[in-house]
Structures are given as structure tokens and as C-alpha cells.
Amino acid sequence: MNEENKNVSKNGWKRIFGKKWFFPAVYLTVAALLLTGVLWYQNLDNQLPGANEDSEQQLDNEYLGQNPAGFDEESEAVMEQQEVLKMPVVEESQAEIVTKFYDYDADSEDQLQALVLYNNKYYQSKGVDIASADGEVFDVTASLSGTVTEVKEDPLLGHVVKIEHQNGIMTYYASLQDVLVETGAKVKQGDTIGSAGQNLFSQASGTHVHFEVRKDDAPVNPEQYFNQPVSQLEVPSNQQDNTDQGTEETDQDSEDETGGDADEETSSTNTESSAAMANA
Fold it and tell me: Where is the composition biased (Acidic residues) (predicted)?
């Protein structure tokens, strides 16, 4: 009886082995088991305490000099390099330039529009005066990301804000009615720093913001670089040569109320000559 059962069992296995699907099924089963083992091992490795921390620390040490904050600083610097110079207003379509930047190579008409009359003297504008089309008060925004280095109230210019940026670039905002930032604050492009107002020095411009851009302390024509990459900012050679000529609005202070010093008198005489030529 036992011998018969053994023969039946052997015949049953032979029939199973003879099936075409048997060996492929065995291969698939083995492959599934191997794949399950690999996934289990990887999951176990990820759960080992300190394994990922060591890898992250090594990455920090290699690329960040053991200072993760350095990565943020580098990223901010790169972002500033890629920014374009924006008008310091929310809606550019609603703004207009009422006083131009004084360019020594500009035609007489543009030079005339770049002269500021104050106390019976003409002064060359080292920036642009921007007003709204309706003449109303408007928000003044940061044209570039940077750090606020100065906030003050000037008797002639109104509230003043200076912001420093990468690569020796500085932006300057005057004739502000009020200020919403403090010295040392970091601002992003488009952040509101105050609102436009009026001042004694540029009364003819009405409610406006006086905006300047400087590269390595030399004035640059903002109108020429609006909506251009900040990396393209350059100081024209003629402007660099004449940096010391004229009186910029940023250097005006309470001394102007008494006529200023001898250098300012000379500058005003030069600009009066320019105005006379332009009118001619």
C-alpha cells in the first residue's frame, strides 16, 4: 500500500514538472523574493540612527564650509545679480519721469529737463524725479533687493532712504512723505519702503520720489537701465569724469538755505550756463 502511494506521489510531481508554466513560475517567485529582500535592506539602512545625519553633515562641511547659513547668503547674492532694475513704484504704467538725469552727452532739451531750480540757482540732477500720472501720493518700492544703510529726515529733501546692493551698487530715495523701513533692514525688490511726498528742493516736481542709482559711488542714469539686468550697470566714462561737477540732490543739506559753500556756487554757475544754452 505504501509502495503504491509513493508511485502515485512521484507520478504527481512528474506531471507538475512537465507543465510549461512550472519553471517560469519558479523564476518569478525567486525574483520576487530577491526584490523584497533588497527593498527591506534599503529601508533598514535608511532607518539606522545617524546614517542620514552623517551624510547631510558631510555635505554641509564640503559645500557650505560648516555653515549652512552661507548657502542662503550665496543664494541671495546670486538672486541680486539676476535682478533687473525696476522703477521704485508699484505700477510703472501709472508713473512718469518729471525730472531727468543730467547727462553731459544728452541734447540741450534733455539737459534742460535735468536741471533743478532752487534758490535762484540751477543744479544738475543726479537721478530722476518720478511722479504719478494723477499727481497723487503713491507707494515707493525698493527697486532692487538689498540692505538699508541710512534713513534720515532732511529739511530740504524730505525723508531719505539709502539701500546698498551687491557689487558697489547703491540706490537712493528722497522726497519721501514717510518711511516704513529702518537702518539695517533687509528688503526685497518690490517691498514698500515709504510713500512719495514733496520737498523744498524740487518743488516744481510736486508729489514725487527722487531716485538715484550709483555704481562705485558714481551716478548712473536710472532711466537708461530700467528693466535691464543689474549686472549691466556701468558708469559712462564721460559721467565718471564729471562726477565731481555739479551738485547732486543727495548732497544738499541745510547749508543750502544760506546759499551753500563756494563749490556749490561754482556748480550752480556752471548749470546756469547750461540752462542758458538750452534756452537759446
Answer: 246-266
pTM above 0.90, yes or no: no
Q: Which contiguous run of DSSP H or E holds residue 258? A: none
Fold of 92-254+262-279: Glucose Permease (Domain IIA) (2.70.70)
pLDDT in tens, the chain (280 residues): 555 555 556 666 666 666 666 677 777 787 778 777 777 777 765 555 554 555 555 545 544 444 555 545 565 555 666 899 999 999 999 999 999 999 999 999 999 999 999 999 999 999 999 999 999 999 999 999 999 999 999 999 999 999 999 999 999 999 999 999 999 999 999 999 999 999 999 999 999 999 999 999 999 999 999 999 998 888 877 665 555 443 344 444 444 443 333 333 334 445 444 454 444 4
Domain ranges of the chain: 2-43, 52-82, 92-254+262-279
Task: Identify the bridge partners of residue 169 per DSSP, sorted by sequence position.
Answer: 215
Q: Are 116 and 201 in contact (CB under 8 A)?
A: yes
User: CA 41, CA 249: separation in Å to the nearest integer?
Assistant: 71
CA atoms of 169 and 191, how far apart (whole Å) = 18
17 Cα distance to chain centroid:
74
Residue pair 233/213 in contact by the 8 Å Cβ criterion: yes
- The rounded distance, in Å, linking the Cα atoms of 160 and 174 is 4
